[in-house]
Amino acid sequence: MEGVWELTHFYHTANGDTLIIDTKKTQHKIYLDGFVIWNVSPTSKTDEWHGFGTYSFSNDTITEKLTSMSNSMKSDNNTYIIPIELKKNIYKQINTYTANDTLYQNIEVYKKINQ
User: Fold this and answer.
1) Is 73 helix (H, G, I), strand (E, B) or coil?
2) In the predicted model, what is the mean pLDDT of residues 17-34?
3) Which of 19, 28, 83, 92 sits in a 20 to 30 Å window from 13, CA-based?
4) Burial class of residue 44, CB neighbours in 10 A (0-12, 13-18, 19+)
5) Are 70 and 51 within 8 A, CB to CB?
6) CA-to-CA distance for 103 and 85, rounded, in angstroms?
7) Contacts of 87 (CB under 8 A, 6+ apart)
8) 73 has pLDDT over 80
9) Neighbours of 106 (CB within 10 A)
10) Which domain covers residue 104, as residue numbers?
11) Within 13 Å and on the Cβ side, how many CA atoms surround 2?
12) Which phi-psi region, left, alpha or beta, contains residue 33 (left: φ > 0; alpha: ψ -120 to 50)?
């Protein structure tokens, strides 16, 4: 997992139906020596999103514990357990959550940009 990763595709689904496909969103994640830092370039219509903390990787799951983050990320729970599919220089993470009886997924596909 160690390295610099760039988002290539973002999908937002609700109950299995794709609502958004975005291939222009700019987002990076850096995993190094047990630390993670990530950022998203905000558009004129969105809040700033970034985070920093520690991470562990085991059994196709990343656990990120954020200790510093943008206001839009702050909550009572700043630990994120994210299942991933890792191939050599590509990984896909799927964040699943429920709101108002709807199952949502944010699916992010990253490519490694450092060798």
Assistant:
1) helix
2) 90
3) 28
4) exposed
5) yes
6) 20
7) none
8) no
9) 15
10) 3-112
11) 4
12) left
pLDDT at 31: 97
Give the residues across from 54 on adjacent strands. 35, 65
**3-class secondary structure, 72:** helix
Q: How many domains, the chain?
A: 1
- Measured CA to CA in angstroms, residue 93 lies from 44, 45, 56, 101 at distances of 26, 24, 14, 22
- Token pair of 62 as six digits: 């990343």
Amino acid letter at 70? S
Place of tokens 């060798």: 115
Length of the chain: 115
Closest by CA to 9, choosing from 31, 36, 27, is: 27
Closest C-alpha to 71, from 106, 45, 47? 47
Q: Residue 74 maps to which CATH number?
A: 2.40.128.20
Is the pLDDT assigned to residue 55 strictly greater than 80? Answer: yes
For residue 91, give the amino acid letter.
Y
User: Count of CB atoms within 10 A of residue 27's CB?
Assistant: 18
